[in-house]
Predict the 3D structure of the following.
Amino acid sequence: MAVNYRERLKRVYAAIHDDPARSYSLDEMAELAALSRFHFHRVFAAMTGETLAGALRRIRLNGAAHALVREDAPVAAIGRAHGYPSAAGFSRAFRAAYGVTPARFRARGLALPAALEKQKGGQAMFPVEIRNEEPRWLIGLPHRGAYHGINRTYAVLGAELAARDLWRHSRGMAAVYYDDPAVTPEADLRSFAAIAVPADVACPEPLQRLQIAGGRHAVMAFTGPYTGLGAAYDWLFGGWLAQSGAALRDAPSWELYLNSPMDTAPDALETLIFVPLEDEA
């Protein structure tokens, strides 16, 4: 019987997401993946593109960053809930990843990068242009639940793509967001974690294919932590839209990620936000 490595690695990622505060040993993770301790780390790194230590750090700090923005718990308590029992250790790790202390990150209010905090006269520091886009093809997996939890689905997607040697076709990570989190219960939010690919790339199950319609779009070039994207959307659909006079098309917004949190500091993450628009009359 063929070994299904992607299912084994899914169990590892699921365990980290389910209990980020737990101290995991290499032996425990190897057992969870049903691999020997000797082979586990090499298989994990080869199939996911990150080390186990890197995955733990990324998932914990990403979760902590979202918690700092969304919750009122003390900073030290958030650190403990995400695998950092020492407040000093949490502060050092967070600062190394985000460039600021957890307290300073929370003080930004909406976790905006510094550039977006410096809006003047309603003009954001991140450019928005209206342009015509060609249709694009995505292959990926649906996600249901909080948008900030989509990284769990990306972990599963990564294992599926690696197992099928599909990463080589990637034209960038992408995500489609179907619902407005202001009016939709968090548990019912629908999104799609994906990579952009050429139209002729095969899409084996359980992966799904999705076509993004081309046409007129507002495109915002956002630089900074993903925790700031919600505020960027608020500005885009508020101040910018009112000033532009553009009419929204009945289609979901989507994002294209130009780099990866696996090897890029949060303040340097680059995201293109695409908002479909009606054609000009």
